[in-house]
Specification:
CATH class of the largest domain in chain A: Alpha Beta
Radius of gyration of chain A: 19 Å
CATH superfamily of the largest domain in chain A: Medium-chain alcohol dehydrogenases, catalytic domain
Shape of chain A: globular
Largest interface: A-B, 25 and 25 residues
CATH topology of the largest domain in chain A: Quinone Oxidoreductase, Chain A, domain 1
Helix content of chain A: 25-40%
Strand content of chain A: 25-35%
Structural class of chain A: alpha/beta
Number of domains of chain A: 2
Distance between the termini of chain A: 14 Å
Largest sheet of chain A: 7 strands, mixed
Oligomer: homodimer
Number of strands of chain A: 16
CATH architecture of the largest domain in chain A: Alpha-Beta Complex
Chain lengths: ~325, ~325
């Protein structure tokens, strides 16, 4: 098979690899589409190696495609099923191997680009908002960096959960798109005037986190998933104490297979049905053929996109 | 009645006040003992005013004594009961008024000084460790500033809950006392060599919090209750994300009556029985007569004490 391949010096090429063979609990999938995430760009630069068990040189943490073959212990899926899934790496290839537990059936009517950009974005947003953040009906929710893949997923999830959503995006041309998703958009650094927030999904961090904390309601939670604007922030613990605030963070990729399943199962049960009926979707900013991944990464890195950049088989 | 009274210029005197009269849900208590907390010293200096509904000039958040009179709607207690309770302020007086819901019966055999220093310390520690921190059997728990009132309560609660407890105390003469409570003592700034910790009760903060965060296990929680060593800390969010850590903080005093009841009821049900059978206690470092509160505050402020400083009726 061919796969997007990271070469020394961060070169990104479309190169040949041996076809992967499924183990007993694994599924071999013919990849139709694979979303790009910020982690892929970090991995290309050598800052974020793939976890053990994933191909070290093939990026890609989410994909969709058709089941080609199943390991002997697989029970839930069948050859020919349209699936989408989560990987530690290796998704940006003609063929991908996934744990059967880390795959979900793509609902009828959902396009390949949407399915290929769904899993990492929505699992990350669901884990952060619901499992860590305790998202609940009527919460006032702040999503920073809302125009990206996880941001647009977080906005839609929170709206679907009955929250009032306030969304920051640097580029004003995205504000109408965010309104269309049900959020009240604003430009960063105005958080204070839009609070108080019960829950903040922090995808940017830097000193903007201070603004989010200042605008937090009593008992408010900040879940940090991205730190593109800076990971080192000064925190005023008296403010944390006065607000009885919770500041937490996580990554999805480093988790064990069982921990990932613990996120995928409720996403499959509670979020995929909303995707199936069109209550939420994946805005696809651009698609590129897998073989032209270098151009796609360049587009992703240039920013100012709304939603996901997705690689396609052809 | 007479009460410890804060006068302009942070003067602390023993002065006369009108006798308080219980409202329908209130209980009038003849105070036997009242613990001193760091918040009282801050209040004296003008940094931490009493919440609405509490006397503005009489300090004291915990006390024990005998029920003298009950409001018309009180149902749980009777005149003559030995009680201990939580107040927003006003405990350091001959007479104190408390919500009936914020009082607990003092178990037989528990001395007045122990009862008078129990409620604030144990409610704070229970709320932080159990309700906020999710303390569970087998957790490795760090308590910083472990020699103080909340620290000694936190150590004993965590030991009683089946945790392994590591306790920091600046003064080595307290290390044997901490060992006697079941903790492994160490001097601050050595946190890294004693981790990884599942839960940290942070009573000191400052840059020591960085050490606690560095020594945190995956999924570890830091609950910040005291910031004597500094409230502004630099936080590395990448470490928070990598450890899937939770940093949270709170104060007890600012909460509503109902929120305080939500802490007192489980403490009454689950912790007071352990006090009754001697599985935990309040180490009393010193007692002073209420009328000599200024000397007691001086003793408290000088530090290097193990456990509580408690004021007594006579």
């Amino acid at each position: 098979m061919h796969a997007v391949t990271i070469r020394p010096g961060a070169e990104l090429v479309w190169a040949e690899h041996p076809n992967p063979e499924p183990g007993p609990h694994q599924v071999l999938v013919a990849v139709e589409t694979a979303g790009i995430n910020a982690a892929d760009l970090l991995q290309r630069q050598g800052f974020y190696p793939a976890p053990p068990g994933s191909p070290p040189d093939i990026p890609g943490m989410e994909f969709a495609g058709v089941v080609l073959a199943l390991g002997s212990e697989c029970r839930r899926l069948a050859v020919g099923d349209r699936v989408m899934g989560l990987l530690g790496g290796g998704a940006q290839a003609e063929l991908a191997l996934a744990d059967e537990d880390h795959l979900m059936v793509v609902p009828d009517g959902v396009s390949w680009p949407v399915a290929g950009g769904f899993v990492e974005a929505y699992c990350t947003a669901y884990d952060a908002l619901v499992l860590q953040g305790g998202l609940s009906v009527g919460d006032r929710v702040l999503v920073t960096g809302a125009a990206g893949g996880v941001g647009t997923a977080g906005v839609q999830l929170a709206v679907a959960a009955g929250a009032e959503v306030v969304a920051s995006a640097r580029h004003r041309e995205h504000h109408d798109d965010l309104r269309a998703l049900g959020a009240e958009p604003f430009v960063p650094d105005e958080a204070l005037t839009h609070g108080p927030f019960d829950l903040a999904l922090e995808l940017v961090a830097g000193q903007g986190l201070t603004g989010a904390l200042d605008a937090l309601a009593t008992g408010g939670r900040v879940v940090v998933i991205g730190v593109g604007a800076g990971a080192r922030v000064e925190l005023d613990l008296l403010k944390v104490m006065q607000r009885r605030a919770v500041v937490r963070g996580s990554t999805l990729r480093a988790r064990t297979a069982a921990e990932k399943s613990a996120v995928l199962r409720p996403v499959e049960a509670h979020v995929v049905p909303l995707l199936a009926v069109g209550r939420l979707t994946v805005p696809v900013a651009a698609t590129f053929p897998l073989a032209e991944a270098a151009a796609a990464y360049e587009r992703f890195g240039a920013g100012a996109k709304f939603g996901k950049v997705v690689l396609t088989r052809s």
